[in-house]
Amino acid sequence: MIALRNVSFTYADSDYGVKEIDLSIQKGECVVLTGPSGGGKSTLTRVLNGLAPHYFYGRLSGTITIGNDDFTQKPIWEISRQIGSVFQDPKSQFFSSELAGEIAFATENYGLAHPEVVRLTHQAISHFKLNSLINRNLDDLSSGEKQRVAIASVYTLNPEIYVFDEPTANLDAEGVVQLKQTVSDLKSSGKTLIIAEHRLSWLDGIVDRFVYLKDGAITWEKTAKEMGKLTKKQRDDAWLRSSTPIHIPDLPRPAGQGSPLLSTTALSIKRGRNTILQNQNFKVWPGQIISVTGRNGAGKTTLALALAGLDGKTSGKIEILEKSTRRLKRRSRVWYSSNETGTQFFTNSVSSELLLTQNLTESTLEKARELLKRLGLYQYKDSHPATLSGGQRLRLSIACGLMSNREILIFDEPTSGLDGGNMNIVATLFRELAKSGKSILIITHDGELIKRCCDFSLPIA
Amino acid sequence: MGNTKSWTVNNVITTVLLSLLIIVVQVMANIGGAINDFVGMVLSTPIGAIVAGPIYMLMISRVKKRFVTAVLMILNGIMFTLLSNWTMLVLFSVAAVVCEAILWNDGWNSIRKITVSWMVAAVMYAGRNFVPVWFFWDTYQVFIADAGGQEMVDAMTRYFADPIWVTIIIVLSAAGGFVGSLIGARLLSKHFSKAGVL
Amino acid sequence: MSIIVAVTANVIAMGSLVLLGLLQLAIQRRWQFAIRAFIFYVVIGALLLPVRFQGVNLPLISEIFLLTSWIILPMAIVGWDLMTTPPGEMASTLSKMKAPTPVILGVLVIFRFFPTLKSEINGVFRSMKNRSLTDWQHIVRHPFLTAEYILVPILLRFLQIADQLSASAVSRGATNPNVRSSYYEKRFEARDAVWIFVWLVATIAFLTIGGVKF
Q1: What pTM does this model have?
Q2: Do B144 and C174 touch (CB under 8 A)?
Q3: What's the first-to-final CA gap in chain B, in angstroms?
Q4: Could you report the predicted ipTM of this complex, rounded to two decimals?
Q5: Which of A384, A387, A392, A393 to mutate to test the interface with B (most CBs of B within 10 A)?
Q6: CA triplet A89, C109, A106: central angle to 5 degrees?
Q7: Is A269 helix (H, G, I), strand (E, B) or coil?
């Protein structure tokens, strides 16, 4: 149905892009584009949905045909009627704060008659079971719900083909489960799906074929079956995440001997007037890595922000090294890394970001250099953080935490946008840091990560 | 790079978002000026111009199209018309025309031209206080004396009618615009051009 | 300053404008809003009466503030009515006027601005606290850097959001040259024409009674 013949695209004023892509995709097929960060997955989705070169300017060559139509010559609004696009960050895709208004957006742009707009909108709302959310403000929805709204808003045009660019990068675990359901429904209704992704396990049972991109070119293709046969070693060498679900191992609650590094007694947390968490009692010892789990909205992030002294009103006790520690003091002893990297960086280069508020001794410089090298950021040390890709920014945020010298570090969904190789590197770094006597709390449902580095689990309810 | 004259969707959205940010910063400076007459009537415009200067500099050099500054001025004009009266729309339309004229031919590539247009914008912004006093003083005075008392009339007469204070306010506003642009130019080279967003 | 002219000259004229505004709200069945505006109007009027006619000086409340509130009330009612019109209906009116799609998107984005600003400012301050950039020692030592640390991330984030929003719009047909349609139906009815006429007459009458001076 879709055929790319010798397609190359280079972004204007850069030599980055994809080259000599030959790819055929059958009707109803689900193809997953994968490979290391910066390999060209996102760019290929843009070539497919026409954003390259119509929105991201650059030079396109080769031919793209869909059915018998040559798509290389079409304006983007004609392409978008047949290819629906879903992006990484659902919250910056919305033009409306209202559900119906947002879902109607595309049909309105195409100037469909009013009754038709209403019919298609309502049909999409009921198809995606969004009725219960109809009166909620879109900003207040969970990340998974937002992504469902984003998909519903392209569904109205009834495209045959859907292109997803890392749709889980900003989703929490429950959001991924919801997305899986939605995508699997689209697949069974015969739609053609093209998904660029690092996280592969949620696609188990949906995907037909994996296409591996590296340095802007397709290196190999494998069916889901062939992919499942890869050994762990082969996957690690290709920087791939597991293509089948890894069950979250059963880990005990944190336990230890000697004095705990962090402990809470009868801790309750309020945000505004709402009590989010009540009566939390736990202890964490030095050297432990703990996965913090719990359903969506249970208050994992709230707990993390409160422990780090960043947000929330607490009652009860929070002790660090058996001394009650107040909010402002905690800020200098507990680190919190969010996976929303949009507002985390302040300086104009990766290296100065890492050295911000550090004493510039030879040993910190050496430590920073080593971190950058291991996280694959050294070649960008002089680049502005804003020029980094999403995955690179996430690694920079983690690196800042590792540099911070704080005793307790909390990472919020640190692997959502990481490829397999970087996930392994991050897991190893966490291990080393714990060995040096720090405690690490990781909010995650990523079975692969938990298996690789967590000792204990702290369920929040 | 597409058509260089016509606006893209991206241009529209960037202009609207950054214009609103400029307006919010300036309104915050005005509200902050409520602590006393001198700060409110003399310093709030220059302070607003300094803080909003970098945003203006970024907006003009990012979008690189005609009528960007006009959108900002029209939004300002509409807001002040709602808050006081229609003469504000006239005032800000004049500001729009002058600033557009300065930037008309590729002005967005010239730090100097952007600086001059922002200085003009700051002075025109200060004008929102002068216009009622200069053109409608007879009625305005009666009205203010009625409600605000003689002190208010004195303060307004001192700052907005006395040629010396008017000159001082205009000079300070222009200077605020200049300093804001200077900071903007610095941030442009330190951050924004390096971040590849220009 | 036509409104001001009138207020000193004629309180009744002023009041009728407010009543007209309230009537407009009532017809739209926005009762709660109408009632609040009415109470506000009565309270301010009651406070202003002694000031105006007995020369009483009010303690604590700035009289100029009261008076300004009184004057802009008709404007505020109509303005607020407009501002709180759901963006969808606003977009609908614009598409009825055959406004080009990018213009309508520009108007829609205005409504996304404040929620976005709020969440991004929160994000920046949270990161600053996390990285000890809000310690007073740091702020005192580097006041300009502190300002830069607030402004630059917000600006870069706004540009990023503008890019992502535009990509999302363009991939949903925003560059389609057709006239945009609308989910919300807002027909230009006879009633609307009547209202425009009523406001026009009221304004002219108002200016005449008030005796505009230029």
Answers
A1: 0.89
A2: no
A3: 13
A4: 0.94
A5: A384
A6: 65
A7: strand
